Amino acid sequence: MLLSSIRRTLPLLALLGGIPALAQQTPPVSPTPVFPRPAATPGDTTASGAIDRQEFATPSVVGMGPSKGLIFHYERMPTFGVTSNAQVVGLSDFSADAKKNARLVIKGYIPMLNHPHLKLIMGVNYEREEFQFRSTPTRYELYDNIENKALKTLGAQLAVIRPVNEVNWYIFRVKGELSGDYTSSALSVSDYLRVSSEFLYGWKRSPNFSWGVGLQLGYTFGRQSIYPAVLYNRTFNSRWGVEALFPARITARYNASPKSLFFAGYTVDGFNYIVKLNNPLVRQNQSDKQPLRTLELRETEVKFRGRWEREIYDFLWFGAEAGYRYNYAFDAFDRTNADREKIIDSKFAGAPYASLELFIVPPRKFLKKQ
């Protein structure tokens, strides 16, 4: 009974890598197929032959590779220059080298419901971004705070996938995160809470082609904003495909084998942190403004990347990624007063980066056709 239950919930894990790797189809009420029947490749997120039983539409397509249930990710950048220009009178400029910028990311996803017409996924994540500067203390309040405390994100999300019929589907996702330099002994939820969401409506034209349009509310571009999104997942042949959620990311995929996939493209990443200052910053000639005790950091970066994913053993895969990071902004805004004035305009020099990742996928024996 337990084994049967596990087998029924495992297809839901295809949702867990985010929008580009959403849930696969479940057996239809009628045995009559809706789409042409391509041969399913081993290593697809569906079971071998599952395409033959496909009835309800979802955004995923053949060849997208294994879905991710638990992810461990570490990313590192070498030394790069940092330049900060004060935007208000009374603060100083700053220029130095950061000898380290590293990110640790842990994500996990839990299938909550797997019905043919409704699929629910709960996700949790923990992220930690660290900076180290060549000369410490920097004597610059913002960066001394960052180096001493690091920047953390703790979040949870709920994804709802609704296959409407054989062609149409829609997705709704809401996510809440605590993001900033908080510690367990000093945490105010109202200060650090960040909420994002997205809605996409789409069409499954064939097992190899799915697309959709919608809106996203989030911090991809540093500050909370609403922007349009276009999802485009397409597999052209047994080797090549593309997975995109424009404008946030576009990725070309090459299926070297069922156990080895290569990717190339770009991503736009946005981060929004709350930083509590140890020593208040005082602006000159602005007696109507309170001393700055809290700053909001808005970070936006574009990564041009290449990636390789490879099976280690059945349910365990690794990913290796390298590329070039272009930092668009790392700006600090006033969170003490109500005007949200820009206080510091910062730029990081472009730099290469590399990351390693381990992730767990559904074991192959549970994906075999029953």
Share of residues in strands: over 45%
The DSSP helix count reads: 4
**Coarse shape:** globular
The chain-level mean pLDDT equals 83
How many individual domains?
A: 1
Distance between the termini: 15 Å
**What integer value in Å does the Rg equal?**
23 Å
Low-confidence stretches: 1-54
Largest β sheet strand count, sense and barrel closure: 16 strands, antiparallel
Structural class: mainly beta
In which range does the helix fraction lie?
under 10%
Q: From N to C, what is the helix and strand string?
A: HEEEEHEEHEEEEEEEEEEH
Protein name: DUF6268 family outer membrane beta-barrel protein
Pfam families: DUF6268
Region (Disordered): 27-50
Keywords: Signal
Please describe the structure with a list of short key phrases separated by commas or semicolons.
single chain, 370 residues, mainly beta, 16-stranded antiparallel beta sheet, 4 helices, disordered N terminus, signal
Which secondary structure elements does this structure contain, and how are they paired or packed?
Blueprint: H1 2-9, E1 70-77, E2 80-86, E3 94-115, E4 118-133, H2 141-149, E5 151-163, E6 168-180, H3 189-192, E7 193-206, E8 209-218, E9 225-235, E10 240-246, E11 249-257, E12 260-281, E13 292-313, E14 316-334, E15 342-348, E16 351-360, H4 364-367
Antiparallel strand pairs: 1-3, 1-16, 2-3, 2-15, 3-4, 4-5, 5-6, 6-7, 7-8, 8-9, 9-10, 10-11, 11-12, 12-13, 13-14, 14-15, 14-16
Organism: Hymenobacter yonginensis
InterPro entries: DUF6268
Region (Disordered): 27-50
